[in-house]
Amino acid sequence: MPRQLNEALFFWLVCLSAIASLTALVVDVSVFMINSAKLGERESYLIWLFTSLFFAAVAQSCIQFISPLAAGSGIPQMRAIMAGV
Fold it and tell me: Where are the domains positioned within the chain?
């Protein structure tokens, strides 16, 4: 049974690495496209604003629906761990 667990874990790690690689590719291509568009200051600011709001909404949705136990900043927990409490 442990061998099957390791194979399943390996499969999920490969899937996660592929998703991370594709995400990095999409970010790289979108940054290149935005930079090559030579937009004005106002348009660049609006793109930055809406992409920031989009990613904040995605992060909030992940916490709300996928892992509600992960709510909170984590800073107080890390300070407690680093202080040895």
Answer: 1-38, 39-85
- Tens digits of per-residue pLDDT, 12-39? 899 999 999 999 999 999 888 877 877 7
Task: Quote the radius of gyration of the chain (alpha carbons, Å).
Answer: 19
Q: How many CA atoms lie within 13 A of 79 on its CB side?
A: 4
- CA dist 62 and 46 (Å) reads 24
22/64 Cα distance (integer angstroms) = 24
Give CA separation, 23 vs 20, 30, 63, 64, in Å: 5, 11, 19, 22
Report pTM: 0.48
Could you tell me which residues come within 8 angstroms of residue 47 by beta carbon, excluding any fewer than 6 positions away? 34, 39
